[in-house]
């Protein structure tokens, strides 16, 4: 019978820089109780820098592939680490958190951290809190604080990459200023700004941007085509589907653009999109590509079923409204 692995033995292993970090150890870093977290932090100061970053890299990769693990305890504990790369990775470990207290900390990092990497990660994760606020799951004062911070960064003379990241995260916001902010970025000559404006358009779920998105699907710069394809799917622009199918026929098209277009087609739906995806599955032997295409096909099925459900719901609501009107009419006739 195999001996149960203790967390202390995992930490002892972490201290030995000559050893790889086994996949089996990553599970034990998940959902740490207070005692285990204290043990972790006691050992952390003695871990060599490269070893620290290796562990965090492995935890981040595992977080992407394992739906059960949760490394929030470690992420929170390392937000104030002396090393900027550690702080940035720590924010990545908090990607699935919706704790309002975290939003305040991230806002502070965005505005005051002296190093770019943590600020970039904070800007990205704050987008999730803007979305929560739009869903009425965040206090209004905190919502305003987050949005004000992102707007401050966008309108500053700060690092352009950070300002673009802030714009993309603010895209979820319904604040009146957003229209002007997105339009200003969209009119810039810099393709990076245009791409970020397109991502913000997609996240806004505002159909006012449909024509702007479609107009950029065939731009020369692949960054713009990629962002436009993503936005077309987010905005469910049916007019974009034939153009993206045309893009997919171009043998010289960028791989990332192709992936974005396929996924967007799975969001928009339609028989042509289904035929194209099924045909690709039948004519490729690349296992990774097949897995992606099968996910896209499932996503297409999901969105089409969702559309049917929405239509049925609308019909039922309309019938209920009609019944109420008829009942009122009957009551008036009886008087």
Protein architecture, described:
The protein has a domain of 117 residues. The relative contact order is 0.04. It is 72% helix and 0% strand. It has 18 helices and no strands. The chain has 335 residues and is mostly helical.
Strand proportion: under 5%
Compute the separation of the termini in Å.
84 Å
Rounded to an integer in angstroms, the radius of gyration calculated over CA atoms is: 24 Å
Helix residue percentage = over 70%
Q: How would the global form be characterised?
A: globular
Please, what is the average pLDDT? 91
Strand tally is 0
Low-confidence stretches: 328-335
Q: Helix/strand/pairing class, anyone?
A: mainly alpha
Largest sheet: none
Order of helices and strands: HHHHHHHHHHHHHHHHHH
Question: What is the helix tally?
Answer: 18
Summarize the structure.
This protein has 335 residues and is mostly helical.
Architecture blueprint of SSEs:
Blueprint: H1 7-15, H2 23-26, H3 34-44, H4 49-65, H5 72-77, H6 84-92, H7 100-112, H8 116-134, H9 140-154, H10 160-170, H11 177-186, H12 191-204, H13 210-215, H14 222-234, H15 240-248, H16 255-268, H17 271-282, H18 287-334
Helix pairs in contact: 1-3, 4-6, 6-8, 7-8, 7-9, 8-9, 8-10, 9-10, 10-12, 11-12, 12-14, 14-16, 15-16, 16-18, 17-18
Tags for this model:
about 325 residues
């Amino acid at each position: 019978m195999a001996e149960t692995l203790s967390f202390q033995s995992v930490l002892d292993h972490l201290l030995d820089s000559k050893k790889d970090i086994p996949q089996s150890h990553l599970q034990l870093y998940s959902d740490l109780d207070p005692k285990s977290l204290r043990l972790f932090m006691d050992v952390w100061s003695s871990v060599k820098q490269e070893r620290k970053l290796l562990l965090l890299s492995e935890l981040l990769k595992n977080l992407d592939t394992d739906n059960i693990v949760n490394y929030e305890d470690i992420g929170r504990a390392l937000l104030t680490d002396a090393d900027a790369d550690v702080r940035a990775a720590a924010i990545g470990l908090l990607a699935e958190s919706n704790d309002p207290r975290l939003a305040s900390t991230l806002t502070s990092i965005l505005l005051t951290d002296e190093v770019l990497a943590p600020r970039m990660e904070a800007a990205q994760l704050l987008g999730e809190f803007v979305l929560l606020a739009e869903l009425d799951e965040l206090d209004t004062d905190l919502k305003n604080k987050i949005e004000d911070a992102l707007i401050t960064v966008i309108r500053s003379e700060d690092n352009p990459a950070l300002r673009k990241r802030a714009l993309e995260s603010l895209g979820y916001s319904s604040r009146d200023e957003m229209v002007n902010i997105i339009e200003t970025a969209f009119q810039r000559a810099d393709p990076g700004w245009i791409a970020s404006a397109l991502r913000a358009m997609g996240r806004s779920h505002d159909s006012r941007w449909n024509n702007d998105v479609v107009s950029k699907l065939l731009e020369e710069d692949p960054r713009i085509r990629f962002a436009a394809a993503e936005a077309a799917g987010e905005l469910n622009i049916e007019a974009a589907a034939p153009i993206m199918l045309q893009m997919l026929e171009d043998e010289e098209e960028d791989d990332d653009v192709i992936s974005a277009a396929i996924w967007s087609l799975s969001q928009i739906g339609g028989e042509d999109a289904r035929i194209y995806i099924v045909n690709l599955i039948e004519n490729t032997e690349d296992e990774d590509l097949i897995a992606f295409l099968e996910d896209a096909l499932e996503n297409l099925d999901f969105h089409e079923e969702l559309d049917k459900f929405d239509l049925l719901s609308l019909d039922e609501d309309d019938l209920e409204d009609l019944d109420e009107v008829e009942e009122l009419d009957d009551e008036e006739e009886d008087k």
